[in-house]
Amino acid sequence: MIITVVGNYPKIPNRPRPARLRNAYARFDRGEITWEDVRKVQDQVTIEVLKEQAEAGVELVTDGQIRWDDEQTYLAGAMAGIEITGLIRFFDTNTFYREPLIKGPIAWKGPITVRDFEFAKANSERPVKPVLTGPLTLARLSKNEHYADTVSVALAFAEALNREAKALVAAGATLVQFNEPAACRFQEDASFAAKVWRRLLDGVNAETAVYFYFGVPGAALGPAIEAGFTTVGVDYVDPRGSEQIRAGPRPRKLAAGVVDSRNTRLETVEQIVARVREAVEVAGSANLYVNPNMGLEFLPREQAYDKLVRLVEGVKKAREALG
Fold first, then answer.
1. Close Cβ partners of 63 (under 8 Å, ≥ 6 residues apart)
2. Sign of CA dihedral 151, 152, 157, 161
3. Which residues of 15-42 are buried (b: 16+ CB within 10 A; e: fewer)?
4. Mutual angle of helices 35-56 and 20-29, in 10-degree steps
5. Secondary element (H or E) of residue 270
6. Which entry of 88, 190, 194, 232 is 20 to 30 Å from 216 by CA?
7. What whole-number distance in Å separates Cα of residue 85 and Cα of residue 121?
8. pTM for this model (two decimals)
9. From CA 132, how far away is CA 74, in angstroms rounded?
């Protein structure tokens, strides 16, 4: 059983801690500092969030996606054939993303996240995993003016992300994670999901994971297992998540989201223990990751940290109970 996180982490701490990253962007916009100066602040904040995750007791951390404005722009904006346009609401949240506009063939131009992963790995006392947005989600949250249909868009994103994943593995990543929240909302995409994900994973010689949130995987669960993901991440705060995993099909490894990243209310230790027990019953302790149900950026920074501390407390209690 490994305690991990799903991806992003709040960038701005509560007062009186300084909002250094926000201030850096504002100063850059006013022409007071260079982009290189902004990158130094991004590095400093990345080190902060790596330390906070470790201090909370998380055993497998991420870089918090501190450099990402949202879950689409950072990847799509670095690919050929795509322009970044106006703000769109991100699912049913109070956050927004800039919509990728596909104007031509999508292509990988070079490593996008490798430098971020290498920096995090060099500055973390805990193992680090890279996290990418999956091809179905990038396809569904982009506006397409080039390809004939959504399947073609998703396959093009899968091809580009495959090369990014291989670059991460070449840089030392032993696990590459893909987040696919759109697969929960657009259940009809399950009809072609296995084909897209097989292209995504082709030749990626590392453990791979796909995380579902903003709902349960539903019809996407079977294709995810069929495509070959090592681990499937499911929201265990939503009772339907555990019910679906119990009913099968079952993945080789399970990642159970046992605390709610969209609610500041802390779960009790007993609630976490109960959810961990449910997950252990179907996956076994050796094949289980335990984490929040999605990225933590919907919470204030201090509450996100408190969630992780409580998560670790609950998992430790579950480990004791399970022997």
1. 46, 49, 50, 116, 117, 119, 120, 128, 130
2. positive
3. eeeebbbeebbeeeeeeebeeeebeebb
4. 170
5. helix 269-283
6. 88
7. 32
8. 0.96
9. 10
Distance CA 227, CA 161 (A): 15
Nearest to 209 by CA among 192, 227, 195: 227
The answer to whether 239 touches 279, Cβ cutoff 8 Å, is no
Please report where in the chains the tokens 């994943």 appear, as a residue: 165
Cα–chain-centroid distance for residue 95? 16
Q: How many residues does the chain have?
A: 323
Cβ burial of 83 (10 Å; 0-12, 13-18, 19+) is middle
The pairing of beta strand 131-133 with beta strand 175-179: parallel
Q: Which of 213, 234, 240, 321 is nearest to 283 (CA)?
A: 234
Q: What are phi and psi of 307, to 5 degrees?
A: -60, -45
Q: What is the pLDDT along the chain (323 residues), one digit of tens a residue?
A: 999 999 999 998 877 788 899 999 999 999 999 999 999 999 999 999 999 999 999 999 999 999 999 999 999 999 999 999 999 999 988 889 999 999 999 999 999 999 999 999 999 999 999 999 999 999 999 999 999 999 999 999 999 999 999 999 999 999 999 999 999 999 999 999 999 999 999 999 999 999 999 999 999 999 999 999 999 999 999 999 999 999 989 999 999 999 999 999 999 999 999 999 999 999 999 999 999 999 999 999 999 999 999 999 999 999 999 98
Q: Residue 245: what residue type?
A: I
